[in-house]
């Protein structure tokens, strides 16, 4: 099964993605994680990725689609995956669409996202500054909400209230996915 997780940063996508991955025995991958690793590289590309990330901005669609495509060619993802963080723009859907089965939208309010990212984060990520967090929330509404609408129209969107306990959310996701 090919599953996509969408939600504002801080919505719990990686927590839920990893739980679901264990339960469904399906590999989890996150574009945020891939880009954080790329940002550590001391190359022109690594530096560019880091700069964009630190500002709370999205990486270019071309680069993102290329990165995802190269990962998904790996044998381990042949039978399915749980993808956290891609696609985030309509352009990314145009560049790379891969017969997705379900899209899980973890919905939390901006206020909750701001609180979680600003006060509950360990500050270890390059994009944890308040300014970057606000930018990421703003971009979520302007460029990622159209992606959610796209999947809603396709009839494969599962919307989940993300402001509950990890266990409750996990249970609901499992019920909805089956
Ligand atoms: P995340 O951990 O999903 O919040 O992603 C962290 C950062 O990685 C984002 O702020 C972007 O700079 C980059 N990133 C992750 N996924 C994407 C994507 N689908 N498109 C563009 N940039 C992305």
Short description:
The chain is built from 8 helices and 5 strands, in the order βαβαααβαβααβα. The chain has 178 residues and is of the alpha/beta class. A 5-stranded parallel β-sheet has the order 2-3-1-4-5, with helices on both faces.
Order of helices and strands: EHEHHHEHEHHEH
The fraction of residues assigned to DSSP E strands is 5-15%
Low-confidence runs (pLDDT<50, min 5 residues)? Answer: none
Distance between the termini: 10 Å
- The helix count comes to 8
Number of strands: 5
- The Cα radius of gyration reads 16 Å
Structural category = alpha/beta
Helix content: 40-55%
pLDDT averaged over residues: 93
Query: Rough shape?
Result: globular
Biggest beta sheet attributes: 5 strands, parallel
Account of the protein in words:
- The chain has 178 residues and is α/β, with parallel strands linked by helices.
- The protein is built from 8 helices and 5 strands.
- The chain has a 5-stranded parallel sheet with strand order 2-3-1-4-5, sandwiched between helices.
- Helix 1 crosses helix 8 (166-177).
- The mean pLDDT is 93.
- The chain binds adenosine monophosphate.
- Adenosine monophosphate binds at residues 9, 31-32, 35, 52-53, 57-59, 64, 85-88, 92, 127, 136.
């Amino acid at each position: 099964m090919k599953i996509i997780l969408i939600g504002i940063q801080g919505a719990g996508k990686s927590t839920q993605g990893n739980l679901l991955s264990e339960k469904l025995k399906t590999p989890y991958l996150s574009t945020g994680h891939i880009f954080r690793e790329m940002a550590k590289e001391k190359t022109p590309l690594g530096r560019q990725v880091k700069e964009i990330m630190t500002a709370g901005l999205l990486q270019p669609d071309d680069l993102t689609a290329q990165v995802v495509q190269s990962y998904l060619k790996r044998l381990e993802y042949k039978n399915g995956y749980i993808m956290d963080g891609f696609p985030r723009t309509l352009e990314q859907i145009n560049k790379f669409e891969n017969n997705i089965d379900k899209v899980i939208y973890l919905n939390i309010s901006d206020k909750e996202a701001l609180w979680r990212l600003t006060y509950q984060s360990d500050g270890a990520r390059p994009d944890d500054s308040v300014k970057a967090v606000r930018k990421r929330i703003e971009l979520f509404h302007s460029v990622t909400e159209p992606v959610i609408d796209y999947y809603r129209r396709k009839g494969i969107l599962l919307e989940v209230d993300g402001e509950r306990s990890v266990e409750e959310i996990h249970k609901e996701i499992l019920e909805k996915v089956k």
